[in-house]
Amino acid sequence: MDVRALVFDVFGTVVDWRSGVARDARALLGGRTGAAVDPVAFADAWRSRYLPSMDRVRRGEQPWTNLDGLHRASLDDLLVEFGVPDVPEPVRAELVLAWHRLDPWPDAVDGLTRLKRDHVIGTLSNGNVALLVDMAKRAGLPWDVILSAELVGHYKPDPEVYDATARLLGLAPEQVMLVAAHVDDLAAARARGLRTAYVYRPDEHGPAVAPPPADPLADISVASFAELATHLRP
Amino acid sequence: MDVRALVFDVFGTVVDWRSGVARDARALLGGRTGAAVDPVAFADAWRSRYLPSMDRVRRGEQPWTNLDGLHRASLDDLLVEFGVPDVPEPVRAELVLAWHRLDPWPDAVDGLTRLKRDHVIGTLSNGNVALLVDMAKRAGLPWDVILSAELVGHYKPDPEVYDATARLLGLAPEQVMLVAAHVDDLAAARARGLRTAYVYRPDEHGPAVAPPPADPLADISVASFAELATHLRP
């Protein structure tokens, strides 16, 4: 393998969206609603609207809307569903920004710093550019480049996103490796010729949902970015 | 002013294209052509084809071609003009990569590092993404985000480039400042509502061409990124 660039899925792969969104939901909705809103259930419910909202864009039923916009629309629905339809506008805007303030998994910053020595490292996320930039600055994620569905006008797993990644990096698809905790994302990348690395993130969805420990179809399966760095050491 | 993001023109503003291209032309063409090719004249002649080549794309006379592609086409013409039409393909490819290997002006890395503490810092260049990523890794330019004409499909000074910058950063135009050594780039950014900072780079074109010491229409004129950091300190 001659992997020159590593691009990373972000939500669940690099950062822990569930704890981060629950933390901000607790802070921003807790005082208002007392025990009414379970912040972790709220985070899970919000995330469950993620794929359907992108699929509406992918099928052309909705014009291009970036992830902040999709998060905002699903939040408005969710607040009704959770019985708190009176949350004011500034609180809604702050809640959408919870997705900009997610903490990385404990191994992420050190692992990325090691990987960066010998590779171009970048995001390849459905998150919008501003979200990814805010997140990286807050968390110290040392990206060389921010690549986003927003730059292509297509959400993963549309093939356009993976094709654009190799083209923008000036590389052949097989010189680019997608790193993700999700086998469907990896399968879509492989179908466009990218290399793939599966990362086992057992806590992404909480204790009730167990992801597979490895992806037999990926080039590599690892349990941390440090392990990936060791594997890829030139 | 509430400037949240600083975006930088790159060629001439952050890096010294003239010395860098001359260095690689000397190394790659020197042995072949003896005294026939003056490497500095070669760098100037190559750069002189930059605006006309982009203008053909901007006027729609040529489909979108990234800067590596434009550099390659103008190089092929230039080698004929300089009397060395027999330069082989691998040397041509290496020469195009000279634009990926330019050195920053002496104040650039330290100044950007200071500016990054309180601002998002990014490129806003007609260079393609791969070029900007290669350059940043080699030179240690600590960008938060790589923004490029290539992502928009329009070259500066087309208004689409400046409009896309604020949109992708999730900011109002007046929260974004373009930093450039070229008054025409700054004027085009101002026309789209961006803030502007002029940087005096007296050596960009060598001793025969003197740029203005300041741009009275810009919000700030400085002689280094360090001076800009001091001006913008919160």
UniProtKB/TrEMBL annotation, chains A, B:
<dbReference type="InterPro" id="IPR006439">
    <property type="entry name" value="HAD-SF_hydro_IA"/>
</dbReference>
<dbReference type="Pfam" id="PF00702">
    <property type="entry name" value="Hydrolase"/>
</dbReference>
<dbReference type="InterPro" id="IPR051540">
    <property type="entry name" value="S-2-haloacid_dehalogenase"/>
</dbReference>
<dbReference type="InterPro" id="IPR023198">
    <property type="entry name" value="PGP-like_dom2"/>
</dbReference>
<dbReference type="InterPro" id="IPR023214">
    <property type="entry name" value="HAD_sf"/>
</dbReference>
<dbReference type="InterPro" id="IPR006328">
    <property type="entry name" value="2-HAD"/>
</dbReference>
<dbReference type="InterPro" id="IPR036412">
    <property type="entry name" value="HAD-like_sf"/>
</dbReference>
<keyword id="KW-0378">Hydrolase</keyword>
<comment type="similarity">
    <text>Belongs to the HAD-like hydrolase superfamily. S-2-haloalkanoic acid dehalogenase family.</text>
</comment>
<protein>
    <submittedName>
        <fullName>Haloacid dehalogenase type II</fullName>
    </submittedName>
</protein>
